[in-house]
Design goal:
Strand content: under 5%
Number of strands: 0
Low-confidence stretches: 1-9
Distance between the termini: 32 Å
Number of helices: 5
């Protein structure tokens, strides 16, 4: 357990992962984003993508790996979008 915590970046990271796992279990393994996009064409796909990534990072308290896991993508793709949309 101590080795795992060191690999995860210390006890804060382990505690965060535990709390996210508990929240996912409580929600039936699902994360629901409260997002609404206009249907009149006033918001483009990139704007929607930016909002999805921003909201997921907010839910994951900035944890890129956790956001990538939930969105079923890679950490590199999330980091690319953080830079692309200037989310930090």
């Amino acid at each position: 357990m101590v080795a795992q915590r060191r690999l995860n970046g210390g006890t804060a990271a382990a505690d965060f992962q535990s709390s996210v796992a508990a929240a996912l279990d409580a929600a039936g393994g699902e994360v629901r984003l409260d997002l609404q996009f206009p249907t009149d064409g006033s918001m483009g796909l990139e704007d929607m993508e930016s909002e999805i990534v921003r909201k997921m990072l907010e839910i994951c308290h900035g944890n890129v790996m956790e956001a990538a896991r939930i969105l079923k993508t890679t950490r590199e793709k999330i980091r690319y979008r953080i830079e692309k949309y200037n989310l930090r």
